[in-house]
Design brief:
CATH topology of the largest domain: Neuraminidase
Mean pLDDT: 92
Structural class: mainly beta
Radius of gyration: 39 Å
Oligomer: single chain
Low-confidence stretches: 352-356
Distance between the termini: 132 Å
Order of helices and strands: EEEEEEEEEEEEEEEEEEEEEEEEHEEEEE
Strand content: 35-45%
Length: 364
């Protein structure tokens, strides 16, 4: 028997009748005026069980009890009464016993159980019962799905008082500080639906984001975990638009990257499709090795060592803050100038890209 402070009622469970010795498993409440039977299901019939009230969670706790005359005369189970039904708590604890002392210790913030009768005799041990939040409280994975979406998957948490509630907190880094707004970031409010995954959409390309998780059980008040560690992730970069190719000369073309909405910290590489090589910072060839720079660092690069009167095709790709590269984007092209030799009187005698036989003769 225990007093339920939240509902201002005395709760009585089970017992044994005097004359017949019948064990009971009914639950009754006394409101100061009358008794009311409120349940006939819950723990097995028993007597001499231990009960007390947990004010932090507003539950009546029952442990153990006896059913002498059976093959297993003592219980070691734990139950909680929420005012409407009993819930068995799957938790290890004291050995099976009856008639111990159980009370709530306000200073320690937990329930204390002292001694009791066991099959082996009277015990003098002391136990503490503390309800814990769900575990584990971890984010299983975080993945950049696109330039605008990150998916977060939570590890499934377990608790003695289901269902478990999950929530996620998201933040965006604006280049100087983390914040709860900006960059399209959003939160996942408490829900019994586990993020598996939950998608944060409408984000910015190659944006830096971080997420953490918190879980709680269905107790009243709930047992809530601390926040998990932050996990960071960049969204993917956008595939760059076709580069601008202009200002042709006999052996050079100017190439300018078009970022296609990628932020300033995004890295880019320029590929000479016609020459089958990546362009380096000086406009020459770096072979199969991509050279990564920001658009600002690239500026307009003059690609050198080209063949006169030839068409060249260039493409660009981008890389986000986590090092994930895009594919090559659309191509931009340009044509180098032709080279023409003229005679002393202005007549054309040779043009680059053509074959002529030229004979030099002296004039004096």
């Amino acid at each position: 028997m225990a007093y339920d402070e939240a509902r201002q009622k005395i709760v009585l469970f089970g017992g044994q009748t005097h004359y017949s010795g019948t064990l009971l498993n009914d639950t009754w409440e006394w409101d100061g005026v009358s008794w009311e039977q409120v349940a006939t299901t819950g723990p097995e019939p028993r007597s001499c069980d231990m009960m007390t009230y947990d004010p932090t969670r507003q539950r009546v706790i029952l442990f153990g009890g006896g059913k002498w005359g059976s093959s297993e005369p003592l219980f070691d189970d734990t139950w909680e009464w929420d005012g409407s039904e009993w819930t068995e708590i799957d938790v290890s604890g004291p050995s099976a016993r009856e008639a111990g002392a159980m009370f709530y210790d306000e200073a320690m913030g937990c329930i204390i159980l002292l001694g009791g009768n066991t099959i082996g005799g009277i015990k003098g041990d002391t136990w503490a019962y503390t309800a814990a939040p769900p575990t584990p409280n971890t984010i299983a994975s975080i993945a950049a799905v696109s330039a605008n979406q990150i998916d977060i998957t939570s590890t499934e948490a377990q608790d003695n008082i289901p269902p478990v509630f999950y929530r996620l907190d998201g933040q965006y880094y604006d280049g100087s500080a983390w914040g709860d707004s900006g960059g399209g970031v959003s939160d996942y409010d408490y829900s019994t639906t586990r993020p598996n995954p939950w998608s944060d959409t409408a984000l910015v390309a190659n944006g830096r984001y971080r997420y953490r998780q918190q879980v709680k059980d269905s107790a009243n008040p709930a047992n809530e975990s601390a926040w998990s560690d932050w996990l960071e992730k960049y969204t993917l970069a956008n595939i760059p638009s076709a580069p601008t190719v202009n200002n042709p000369n006999f052996a050079t073309l100017d190439v300018t990257i078009n970022p296609n909405g990628n932020p300033n910290h995004t890295l880019f590489a320029i590929y000479n499709v016609t020459g089958s090589y990546y362009v380096n910072a000086n406009g020459g060839s770096d072979g199969a090795n991509a050279v990564w720079q920001t658009k600002s660092a690239w500026g307009t690069v003059t690609v050198v060592d080209l063949t006169p009167e030839s068409t060249y095709e260039f493409k660009c790709k981008a890389k986000n803050g986590d090092g994930t590269e895009t594919s090559l984007g659309e191509s931009g092209s340009g044509i180098t100038l032709s080279i023409t030799l003229t005679s002393h009187n202005g007549g054309e005698v040779w043009r680059g890209g053509s074959s002529y036989n030229i004979t030099w003769t002296t004039t004096r």
